[in-house]
Amino acid sequence: MNSLSGRFLILTTVFVMLAEVLIFVPSIARFREDFLLNRLERAQIASLALLADDMLAEDLEAELLANAGVYNVVLRRDEVRQLMLSSPIPDPIADTFDLRDASPWILIRDAISRFLKPENEVIRVIGEPVKGAGLLIEVTMDSIPLRTAMIDYGLRILGLSFVISIITAFFLFLAVRVVLVRPIKSVVGYMQRYASAPEDARGIISPNSKVTELREAEEALKMLQTDLTQALKQRERLAQLGGAVAKVSHDLRNILTSAQLFTDRIEASDDPLVRRMAPKLVNSITRAVSLCESTLAFGRAEEPAPTLTMVPIRAIAADVAASEQLSVADACVEIVNEVPDTLVARADPEQLYRVIMNLVRNARQALVASGKPGRVTIAGCENDDAWCIEIRDTGPGLPPKARENLFTPFQGGVRKGGSGLGLAISQELVRGHGGDLVLKETGPEGTVFEISLPRGDMTF
Question: What are the record keywords, sorted (predicted)?
């Protein structure tokens, strides 16, 4: 019964039975009232025999009372209360019920009370004679026949309710299968066919449901499948293009590397013009080689998952500062390590080194390009949620165009000849740690990038 239609079957049966239970008590109260009124009518008919013949034999009187199911009958006519028929009462009268002005709540209360009293009692019942045959009629009777009849009626009501609930649930089961389950299975079938072959346009659903909600779901699925198919085709084209670019970049890098070796001999030329142009040629070739290497690095399928260990951030920052300080062509750029000795973060040391190296190198190159003295500072701190590493510089700041596509490959380059892959790769590596790399601020006073690594669960 884990299917949708099966659960509808069970729920319908339960709710129909619940509805029948809710109307069971009023029904029993109504049955009790009809039962007592019937006894009053039968008693009235028996009393009419006495009015027709003032003298009745005791045997006939007892038979009349037995047929009426009462012990005695009192009829009030013309303001005169008369004991019409009577027989010995075995027990004192336990309760009196007046049906003339009884409200529905009183009838329900009395019915429940009778259900809860299994022992026999002698009760008095008062009502109005039918056909205006008097002012009132009063009888005394046993309560057991009343309770037995109520139980029998209740069982029949419950049995009938159960049959009705089963029949109703069965038809609802069929309706749900036709109206809901079958269309839903059709949608699921389209989804499965599309998942097995998303490039096959025949797997895209064709909305045809007449149910508004299902029609909307089918249309939404069709739009999703159409967009996804187009995205997959575009991704396939980009993958093919990326493979071609990677091959070209690989071969071009080899060619440029060979050209780079020849520049060493060109610099030794006696021709002043050649010697003056050689550094520019070297710089151009170096930038081209760097672009090819960055393209090849970004074109790899994915970076390996980080191997997380607790690493001292200051030591990594010191390695980066030492490496970059050797590369600084102009001593006017200073690299400062302000990371506290106690700062230890959970990260992959190699990947974190690459991220900090990329950010420091970008800052250094921006300062060298500006031609003004400057400083690149590596700082760090921690809070309850994360470890934070900042790379600050005193450079000229990022231009607006660079800010718009800062982490977009091949578009976020700041310096002339840059590919913009360094920041994209760095952000990907940081997000692999569950953290983020953001541009915190930039302007004429300098630029600040922040690396945040979440603390999370400290248990290894």
Answer: ATP-binding, Coiled coil, Kinase, Membrane, Nucleotide-binding, Phosphoprotein, Transferase, Transmembrane, Transmembrane helix, Two-component regulatory system
pLDDT tens digits for range 13-65: 777 777 777 777 888 888 888 888 888 888 877 776 665 555 556 666 677 77
The residues pairing with 140 across neighbouring beta strands, listed in sequence order, are 72, 124
CA–CA gap between residue 84 and residue 49 (Å, rounded): 10
Q: What angle do CA 207, 209, 212 make, to 5 degrees?
A: 105
CA distance 412 to 394: 20
Q: How far is CA 354 from CA 136, 285, 321, 340, 358, in A?
A: 105, 23, 12, 20, 6
User: Is the distance from CB of 437 to CB of 450 less than 8 angstroms?
Assistant: yes
Nearest residue to 122 via CA among 89, 100, 161, 98: 89
In the numeric block, which tokens belong to residue 387?
A: 């470890």
pTM summary value:
0.44
Pairing mode, strands 309-312 and 333-338 = unpaired
How far separated are the first and last CA of the chain, in Å rounded?
A: 43
pLDDT tens string 374-416: 899 999 999 988 999 999 999 788 887 777 778 776 554 555 5
Residue 83's closest CA among 114, 116, 111, 43? Answer: 43
Using alpha carbons only, give the angle 8, 14, 19 rounded to the nearest 5 degrees.
120
Q: How many angstroms separate the CA atoms of 441 and 447, rounded?
A: 6
378 vs 337: CA distance, rounded Å: 5
Residue among 423, 392, 426 nearest 405 (CA): 423
